[in-house]
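debug: dumping io for the single-chain case to check the tokenizer round-trip. Nothing else runs in this session.
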Amino acid sequence: MAEGDIRKVYVASSSMISPLGSSVEENMKAIEQYKSAISLVDDRSVFCMPLYAAKISEDISYGDKLSILEGRAVLSVKRALEALGKEPDEEFLDDVQLIFSSTKGDIGFLDPLKADFDERVFLYHTAKVVADFFKIKREPLVISNACISGVNAVITGSRLLRSGFCNNAIILGADLLSRFVVTGFYSFHSISTVPCTPYDAGRDGLTLGEAVGTIILTVDRGFVADADAVLVEGGGVSNDANHLSAPSRSGDGLAIAIDAAMAEAGVSPGDIDFINAHGTATIYNDEMEAKAIHLTGLSKVPVQSLKPYWGHTLGASGVIESIGCFWQMKHGILFGTKGYENAGVPMEINVTAGHRRISLKRCLKSASGFGGCNAAVIYSFDSVSKRVNSIRSSSWKEISRFRLSGNAGFHDIIREWNRNLDNKDVKFFKMDDLSKLGYIGALALMRNFPEIDNFPPEKRALFFANSSSSLASDLRHMAAIGREDDLLASPAIFVYTLPNTVLGEISIKNRFKGENTFFVYDPKRKFDAESQLLRNASLSGMDLVIAGWCDLLGEHFDLDIALYTKDA
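debug: decoded output
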């Protein structure tokens, strides 16, 4: 790629399957009619009592040999490929990067009473099934970063394209409504007793749902049928370094991500036509978002949440809600936030319940999640885009490295390291084992690096990977509800059933407020994972990064991380 080349990242096509319909048009037409998929679900495989949720009623899938999640994922990608402006050829598939976004994947196949794991519980397996089905040659990437996973995946894919790493990307987001997830959120008392009403004074929690969505990104304009194509203009990811399960009360974490997205896109608040926010309808999430919107100068911009239509679909939410943004831009309609009546956030934002016909040329899509993570991405029409250059990767200088591995004695070893590092943080003993491992490694790296104070918190990044995700904590959660007593779930355990919580613990301790992403790899790819993590870090605009492998399952633990600064 020549110096000064502009690589625009186009949204080439999309598809989605949700409780509202099995196509983008079905979903959007339903929303235009104010239809919601949320209903009272009485299904003992999901929860021990009826609850409001959005569940796909039909067995929409592809093939008999695939799990429901795999089948829906394959079908979604197939339809997105079919919707391209021209037939994807072998060259397209040779140069496409599949990025799979999910929080828990096929976690329903996890059985704490069995010694061996069903391979379907590993997130990388689902991604590999999809990649193999379409004969995609590149190894897939898996992002499991709580509820920002979908937006994070779009940002990652767009940067890879803009940097010249590849020319096409398939962004796939998928999660299921499962007993595992429902019991966990119920333990936090965060599930609404009625369909969710984001930003409203009467809101009392979120509503869960399930979906799968696919967005195909490309730099080849020939694959885009629209006269005025939608672009991915810029994105940002941050951590509020505040709390694992509660968003920052100041809104500063999300504000960092939004500001970074606008800076990368080269736009100002006055250029944004609407905000598709996370809008979960929990008390503190909505308050935090309102404050972040004010901090970034966006308080007058129309704000919406689409979760009253299909619930919170976890790793799929950022993907399907982005697809909703594309539709609104192309059809000149701003969807209202169903159920919204009276403002229920302390700082006024521009939320409406009714749809409006209005010209929409640029959108900000945001998301937030457990572990303190936040993400924001900006979409615009090509005709108004201010994108002027491509992303240039930077090189890194390794400052220090820390390794710790073994197949027995983890608790004794980690306690000894905690003493050696003179760690006085009593919260350390409440962490799950994966977090303890990464946390101790980060402390060891920074023990002899006082220069860290020279790096602004928003320029400090964490990029971690493993193969087991959070299965060690998943097993503990499953054991708690294994006697079919869904009310025994513990919030202190459930919060750790997301691998990115280790990034949250490190961020809180060391004020890392910059980009943070957790990837899940096939264990055979461990040895090339770090170079790929650094490649992604180099595209993020960060100045300092801790990156590497952090895995723990059963008696086995394996940590190999390093501290890097930008090479001058």
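debug: round-trip ok. The first helix runs from residue 24 to 32.
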